[in-house]
Design a protein that fits this description.
The chain is of the alpha+beta class. Helices cover about 25% and strands about 20% of the residues. It contains seven helices and ten strands. It binds zinc ion (ZN). The site of zinc ion has 7 residues, from loops.
């Protein structure tokens, strides 16, 4: 599943082909994905210039003067830049035409989304899907303080609080497991009992791990814009994630798996308290 780093790497990959370019057309090959496509997308976008690209959590924002095209990659979606002549395959549902190039949205499981938010509907941050999102972990300048303040009354496990995404976005299952390991915090620890200094460690871990993942993805940017069908999602060398029964890379104790909120959590009983 694409997480924040993959979405950010995607954004960086498509940005040079989109920004300051004019949309020459739109191709929709079905009526929608998770939600119906905007019915008048072609009329809305044709001959309009893309001002910039952005991202909020896992939502890609393609900004025009008159509104924003919101794209979510869902469970299995990816975007590629291709020559306009490239024949569509079975799961290619949406093309944004940019002259000789197209941005193609492929999504086998169809949990992705393409939505339009007009300028007249208000600030993009007020969109139903965006308004409840937590802060951007790589942009907020006091993530530790925020996590500490906003968890004083939350007795839920810290792992669950991170996954909820209402304090900070982008810390999905993999990154939650890895960040908690790096910070030495037990995934089941009640969020409200974690001290400010430990949140400092956690915030630093979240930022370092997400930045490193984006950096790693950056080296495979080529794959995103190639026509070879490779989406360029990257496998990292995890400390605990998906390593049940294997030795902890720090202390040799075996990595344990528990289930929290129907998601697997991996952690080291010795390193995380
Ligand atoms: Zn360990």
């Amino acid at each position: 599943m694409p997480e924040l780093p993959e979405v950010e790497v995607t954004r960086r990959g498509i940005a040079p082909f989109l920004e300051n370019h004019e949309v020459t057309g739109v191709v929709l090959r079905r009526s929608g994905l998770r939600w119906p496509f905007p019915h008048d997308l072609e009329r809305l976008l044709k001959n309009k210039r893309i001002v910039s690209t952005g991202r909020r959590g896992k939502y890609l924002l393609i900004q025009f003067r008159h509104g924003t095209l919101i794209i979510h990659l869902g469970m299995s979606g990816h975007l590629r830049m291709l020559p306009a002549t490239h024949p569509p395959q079975k799961h290619d549902h949406f093309d944004l035409l940019l002259g000789a190039q197209i941005m193609r949205f492929t999504d086998p499981r169809r949990f992705g989304a393409v939505l339009w938010h007009g300028q007249d509907e208000g600030d993009i941050e007020s969109h139903l899907l965006l308004r409840g999102l937590g802060v951007e972990p790589l942009l907020h300048d006091d993530l530790a303080g925020l996590l500490h303040r906003q968890t004083r009354h939350r007795s839920a496990a810290i792992k669950q609080v991170l996954l909820a995404g209402d304090i900070v976005v982008g810390v999905g299952n993999i990154y939650a497991c890895e960040s908690l390991f790096e910070a030495g915090i037990h995934p089941n620890a009640a969020a409200k009992r974690i001290s400010r200094p430990r949140y400092e460690k956690l915030a630093a871990a979240i930022r370092r791990i997400l930045a490193a993942a984006i950096e790693q993805g950056g080296s495979s940017l080529r794959d995103f814009i190639g026509a070879d069908g490779q989406s360029g999602y990257f496998q990292q060398n995890y400390f605990v994630y998906d390593r049940e029964g294997e030795p902890c890379r720090q202390c040799d104790a075996s990595v344990r798996r528990i289930v929290q909120g129907q998601r697997s959590t991996f952690y080291c009983v010795r390193c995380q308290r």
